[in-house]
Write a structure and sequence with these properties.
The chain is mainly α. It has helices at residues 2-47, 61-68, 70-103, 106-117, 124-138, 146-170, 175-182, 187-198, 200-216, 219-223, 232-241, 248-283. Helices cover 80% and strands 0% of the residues.
């Protein structure tokens, strides 16, 4: 009888595992169709030679042109610079705001979250046009400057920086603040040595959600910023819709390069997060 029971248990576990695998099939199918296949198609098209989409003919010309042509290098550098500055401004504004929301009373926090997310319910073009009119009221030439472009980026993507940081801060154990105060730490020391290290994961999530969309955005530069200075998003649009710069394959090559840059940044940020977490644990 005991031998029979010992043999029967693995069968029950096996049936349970198969049941969970069956439940996961729709998820894997959707993941494959919506994420894996489009990425694979982008990779294939980035290597296809022009006007040879139905032939097995691959080339590195799109990648070579991207790294050789001064126009593309300048556009990439300008896009990454604007994305870096805009992300930094979002972080400088978003972190204190997220901290304020997390430390407020529940009713106040709910109201502030509503105020931050409410503009996201409105069409992006309408929001940019409204911001453009406000800038014109200050100075008629202001919407055509680099500063206006950065202001527009921050205005659109600030909520994506605030919400991840707020989520981490709101779940932080408040006893850490009491322990730091009992040990004689000032408010500045508590912030720099307790709060910020524990919220690094939220900061990295916010940076990831803000940096790449800003670097590849298309709508904001159309209405704000100096005309005639293309960002990477504009070049991708012209390559895909107007068949310029080598057509769809060139736009796909740019997308792959940007994806590799973002993966590298995320990998570095995760290593930094682990380092910070390990250092914090050692101090504790």
């Amino acid at each position: 009888m005991e031998r029979f029971m010992i043999k029967a248990k693995p069968k029950l576990k096996l049936k349970k595992m198969n049941f969970h695998q069956v439940l996961g099939v729709p998820y894997y199918v959707i993941l494959t169709i919506l994420i894996v296949l489009p990425i694979l198609l982008l990779v294939v098209y980035s290597f296809l030679a022009e006007n040879e989409a139905f032939e097995v003919s691959f080339s590195l010309r799109h990648y070579a042109n991207f790294f050789i042509e001064p126009l593309f290098i300048k556009s990439m550098g300008r896009s990454l610079l604007i994305a870096f500055i805009s992300t930094l401004v979002c972080l400088l504004i978003g972190y204190p705001l997220a901290y304020l929301i997390a430390m407020s009373k529940p009713q106040v926090s709910a109201m502030l979250i509503l105020l931050i997310t409410a503009p996201m319910w409105i069409n992006m073009i309408l929001r940019i046009q409204a911001l453009k009119q406000v800038l014109e009221m200050i100075n008629t030439s202001l919407p055509s400057t680099e500063a206006a472009l950065i202001i527009g980026m921050v205005y659109i993507y600030l909520p994506f920086m605030v919400l991840p940081i707020y989520t981490v801060l709101s779940k932080m154990d408040k006893s850490y603040f009491e322990s730091a105060a009992d040990l004689g730490a000032t408010k500045v020391q508590t912030m720099t040595k307790v709060v910020i290290p524990l919220s690094i994961s939220g900061v990295l999530s916010g940076v990831t959600m803000v940096f790449l969309p800003i670097a590849t955005t298309l709508v904001v530069p159309k209405y704000l910023g100096p005309s005639g200075r293309n960002l990477i998003g504009n070049i991708i649009e012209q390559a895909v819709t107007k068949r310029q710069y080598g057509g769809y394959g060139y736009g796909a090559a740019i997308a792959i390069v940007l994806a590799l840059i973002m993966v590298s940044l995320v990998t570095l940020m995760k290593k930094f997060d682990k380092y910070q977490g390990g250092a914090l644990n050692e101090e504790g």
